Amino acid sequence: MMNRKTSKDHDDIFDVAVVGAGAAGLSAALFLTRARRRTVVYDGGPVRNSMIFKIHEYLGYEGSTPAEFLERGRSEVLSYGGEIRSETVLKIEARPDGFFDVWGSKMKIAARAVVLATGLVDVLPMVPGLKEGLGKYVHLCPCFSGYEVRDKPFVAFGLPERLAQLGKFLTAWSSSVTVVSPHEFDSETLTRLDGFGVKTVQDEVTGLVTEGDQLVSIATASGTEVPCEAVFVAAPFKAASELAASLCEVDEAGFAVTDTYGRTSRPGVWAIGNATDQLAHLVHSAASGANIGPWVVDYLLETSLNPKKKE
After folding, report:
1. Helices 23-34 and 282-305, interaxial angle, to 10°?
2. Which domains can be identified in the chain, with CATH numbers?
């Protein structure tokens, strides 16, 4: 384990800097601190699932709130000597000696390895009331919240390339599903949707119609309304941070490209959770943090023995 050091240029030196304090980042930090690696976690603010009320599909945490889940994770990391800093990481640069300079919003450190757990952002359509309804009657993932709104009439809209699959999938929770899109689906897709009992409306969603706190319909560009009590949005994703793009290979949406062990194209840099897998659920993100732990520790041991070793 690295000894604590300070210098004029850096507040501190760590074995690992974990950027992101959600399920993935805290899980990675828990493994690394238990492996006696000096680890700092950067908490840059609310995580993606902070707008939901309860956690589901996570054995042992069913019905917990995101705040309870994260607070327990933070306590576990701290109990093994990890540090958690309420800072946003502004920049990370690789140094010739194999270290990484990490600029936080408050101070600068150096780390021998970096774990990016920076997550993603759902890019919601510009529909009035959509953001305000998130977690209430506006949903992004049927796996996560379909059961809570089961048997209600659903409307699905958003990215055309994902709507047919979403519409079909929603029939697991409701017998009343309508896909609304200005996109013209081909006859084969329409036939398949009809076979699953999914209605289609070729129109654009322009607003949500509510009565009090209840959704009653969506409004369309043609002036009609489609009755519903819950909407599911096939929203595009984008990387929540540009840090990966400055360090390693990324895809067209800015997500880090990794192998099955979370390794990026730059030795010493890993990416986990939604920072690399847009479809990872909470439990998958937590697992990804634990999965990379042994590989990060191995890298640190190897580079301690041979500082010039870069892979």
Report:
1. 40
2. 12-121+237-305 (3.50.50.60), 125-234 (3.50.50.60)
